[in-house]
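The record is passed on directly below:
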Amino acid sequence: MLLDIFNNNAFGVIALTDAVNKLRFVPGLLGKMGLFTETSISVTTATIEDRQGILALVPPTPRGGPGLAMDKFKRHLYAIPVPHFEINDAVMAEEVQNLRPFGQSTGLTSVQTMLSQRLQQHSQSMEATLEYSRVGAVKGVITYADGTTLDLFATFGVSQLPAVLFDLSNATPVAGAVRQKCAAAIRSIAVQLDGVPFSGVYAICGDQFFDNLIANVEVRASFLNQIQAAELRTGYVHGGMSYGRFEFGGIVWENYRGAVGGQLFVDTDKCHIMPLVPGLFRTVYAPADYIETVNTLGQRMYAKQFVMPNGKGIHLDTQTNGLCYCTRPNVLQVGHMGAT
């Protein structure tokens, strides 16, 4: 009766997809912050248009004569394939055996529990994969598990801002040096935004960078006799994936905690600085490669089951087709602990 159970409507592609999208995901700082605007497309390639206005100083011209001839808007189209991530699993007949009496459907809940456990494992891996892609978008270079990369600077034909060296390893730091570096970083970002307003500047930090930052005499002196001093001493849990966050020099600094299989999401001696601008970061979801989903709007995750040819079990597939990227990678900066 295994086939009867899995042919039940509770195990159709729609029901399973709903289930995997409702499960609790692995906590991820960038995902919880809502920095990434999520959209769906019905194709497998994201087409991104850059329509750049021209800002120019207008020189004086003779009255009654011709004025300045303005250049037209420059438009560029970029086509980026949406990466496909898939997990293949199976529920074997032996695993379902004896879960319910013969000829009755009372064991349906037990099978659903088994599938839910498998789907939760899948969704945790998928969410970790998406979060790693988000971190890559903040860095400007997204690295996937197979070693391939998506270099957003090269893709959009822009240069990365020079790295900021904060001199956090110096036992006798120069007075005011860290705050000056913060101001220079903010100004560089503002120049690249070219008048686009931003509500703040945020930095995700590796462990050693963050520890050295809060130990810096200039930083600590700024918080003496202030309520924030407690945060520098102890930090606090935030979102389940990171701890310790404070504002200094016009930048909000947060220690990013995240690793899978020993792979740190953020290098321990670096930070990645970004402005808070609506629509700066995006995630595009493409449809799954199933007959049922051809040319439909993509969902965050999909799940599907189908019977093995030998009838001994059910294949269980989970997938996501998500592209994370930064629309203006030229505003991204990396910070190092190194000396100036």
